[in-house]
Design brief:
The protein has 388 residues and is of the alpha+beta class. The protein has helices at residues 2-13, 92-104, 129-145, 151-166, 173-179, 224-239, 252-258, 265-289, 293-309, 316-326, 354-369; strands at residues 20-29, 41-42, 44-57, 62-67, 76-79, 113-119, 185-190, 195-200, 206-212, 331-337, 344-350, 374-378, 385-386. It is built from eleven helices and 13 strands. The strands form three sheets. Strands 5-4-6-3-1-13 form a six-stranded mixed β-sheet, with helices on both faces. A hairpin with an 8-residue loop joins strand 4 (62-67) and strand 5 (76-79).
Length: 388
């Protein structure tokens, strides 16, 4: 894959000079959805699919950017002096945003670079193709320009790019999971403090299966920012009767005591999800540490129900995939993953049932929705790396 990228890079930008290759993974969140901006816990892992990149420094201040996933767009040429937040909708905004964020943090980049990328993550699937590209860019900047930022810094700068340059008010989970990924481990991350531990994911005869609804969505055009605002308002209302630094700081019992302070019943449901999902995530990691995969699966199922009923971010496509999964033999747990409103599901399926799962769930989805879902049997991989 990376060799193909290099060949196309040389076709587009010419051979010669110091050409470097990179990889940044995608991610899937096993449990803990819409908790990352509510001060709760998440449990994501990096994947072996992701974004490949090839780059070469230039002597001037030009940026020349090309994506093999958007060939029709061609080479986008700009300059380090022309980075303006919110100014465009092309894929290049994620690259430019990270360069802009590094500069805002005092990391001045004096010369531009030529850049090509190829993503093996389906765009708009909810597996964080945009965050993968952002962290890839940060990894390239570190390597090409000798910045000594930690990978946690790269995650934070990437989130800053998404929030302030792209205009999506996302939490830290996607960028952190990608930047800090570790093979065969998920990351138990407290988003309020950024303290984290790696937890081995031992599936023992089961596989992680991603189901892509193929309903196109983007965080920017979804109701993501609306949900975040609802939670922020609910927290302020709770704060009038009980000090709370975040919804994630509340136990379920504490929430029951103060929930009536939230005037609007819709906001009350949103806050309930944030509180209960955080507790489910803590319980799920504990279950996994004890080897209780069945309990982990039950918590995944409960997570989807909460996202469907209290947070209302699923929709017919995601619900169809998950409800079809629940009916299949060998399914330990299934839920939507990512922001919702389309995107993907994640299921844990016994090895011997994977083939029939793909066939049966695919058939049910096609019959109800009218077009195909795509499925990926994935492995947990490492974080970003320099390939050459």
């Amino acid at each position: 894959m990376i060799q193909k990228c290099r060949e196309v890079f040389e076709q587009k930008f010419g051979a010669g000079g110091e050409i470097h290759g990179y990889f940044s993974p995608g991610r899937v969140n096993l449990i803990g959805e819409h908790t990352d901006y509510n001060g709760g816990h998440v449990f994501p892992c990096a994947l072996t699919i992701g974004t490949y990149g090839v780059a070469r420094k230039r002597a001037d201040r030009k940026l020349r950017l090309y994506s093999m996933n958007f060939e029709q767009t061609g080479v986008v040429e700009t300059s380090l002096d022309a980075l303006k937040p919110g100014a465009e909708t092309l894929w290049t905004r994620y690259v430019k945003g990270v360069i802009w964020a590094f500069a805002k943090k005092g990391k001045q980049i004096e010369t531009g670079f030529d850049f090509l990328c190829l993503g093996t993550i389906p765009n708009g699937s909810g597996l964080s193709s945009s965050a993968s590209l952002e962290v890839l860019t940060g990894t390239i900047l570190k390597d090409l320009y000798g910045f000594e930022e930690s990978m946690v810094d790269v995650a934070l700068y990437s989130q800053m790019a998404e929030n302030l340059y792209v205009g999506v008010n996302c939490g830290i989970m996607d960028q952190f999971a990608i930047a800090m990924g570790k093979k065969e481990h998920a990351i138990f991350l407290d988003t309020a403090t950024l303290s984290y531990t790696y937890a081995p994911v031992k599936l023992d005869g089961a596989k992680i299966v991603i189901g892509n609804t193929n309903k196109k969505r983007g965080l920017g055009d979804s109701k993501y920012n609306e949900r975040r605002k609802e939670c922020e308002t609910a927290l302020k209302e709770i704060g009038r009767v009980k000090p709370a630094s975040s919804l994630g700081s509340l136990s379920e019992a504490e929430f029951e005591e103060v929930q009536n302070a939230i005037a609007d019943p819709i906001r009350r449901k949103r806050a309930r999800h944030a509180v209960t999902e955080n507790q489910r995530t803590i319980q799920a990691v504990e279950a996994l540490s004890q080897g209780d995969l069945a309990a982990f699966g039950r918590l995944m199922d409960a997570s989807h129900i909460s996202l469907r009923d209290d947070y209302e971010v699923t929709g017919i496509e995601l619900d169809t995939l998950v409800e079809a999964a629940w009916k299949q033999p060998g399914v330990i747990g299934a839920r939507m993953t990512g922001a919702g409103f389309g995107g993907c599901t994640v299921s844990i399926v016994r090895d011997e049932n994977v083939e029939s799962f793909l066939r049966q769930v695919g058939d049910i989805y096609r019959e109800k929705i009218g077009y195909d879902a795509d499925f990926y049997v994935v492995e947990i991989g490492d974080g970003p790396r320099v390939l050459f």
